[in-house]
């Protein structure tokens, strides 16, 4: 039977030597969001980073949460533009046909009805407009909200890069400590070898 993403993540926790209860459940997943997708992203980040200790595993969770946050903001931005486009199309069409006709055209246009789309294109062309006029109207209505969402996306990405930099610093520091420890061990071993060699020479001299 194939493992679920949650089971795979649990197994990775066990094999890495990190206690299973060391990491609290992520609070990044909101009701209605795809938990399996979150854990797939967590698995990918874990495989990519290969956390070496509990500190790095916490950072992997932080990176995943920030990725998830940025993806959520992008989905919200897309949904906002979708509904703003609907409102923008309705506003433009009500200047060309009556309110009820505009409402019916918008409804069928978003159902991808070919005749409705052809009718909208014809109306816009007759008025010297294009669908860019509709998108401009939609963007103007929600520009402040979109800019705020973009700032939140940027903030999440900046924080994610900061965490990744911390992982690199942590690993560099660990590597430096290991290098110093290795040098001390080598120096101690070399000193012991020299001492042993000196003692052997002394004994040989005495025997001679």
Give the SSE layout.
Elements: H1 5-15, H2 35-49, H3 54-93, H4 99-110, H5 114-126, H6 131-207
Helix pairs in contact: 1-2, 2-3, 3-4, 3-6, 4-5
Describe this structure in words.
- Helices cover 81% and strands 0% of the residues.
- It is mainly α.
- It starts with a helix and ends with a helix.
- N- to C-terminal separation? 76 Å
Radius of gyration: 32 Å
Give the class from helix and strand content and strand pairing.
Answer: mainly alpha
- Give unreliable regions as ranges: 1-15
3D shape: rod-shaped
The number of helical runs is 6
Order of helices and strands: HHHHHH
Mean pLDDT: 82
| Strand element count | 0
Helix content class = over 70%
Query: What fraction of the residues are assigned to beta strands by DSSP?
Result: under 5%
> Biggest β-sheet: count, sense, barrel?
none
Question: Which short descriptors sum up this protein?
Answer:
mainly alpha, single chain
Concise summary:
Helix content is 81%, strand content 0%.
